[in-house]
Amino acid sequence: MDFKDLKYPELTMAVIVVLAIGWASAIGYTMPTFPTRLHVASVAEPLSHDAAVPSCVLTSESSDLTAGASTTIMWTSTGAETAFINGDHVSSDGQRVVAPTSTTFYDLVVRNTSGATAECGTQIVVE
Question: What is the pLDDT of residues 5-16, one digit of tens each?
Answer without folding.
Answer: 555 555 445 544
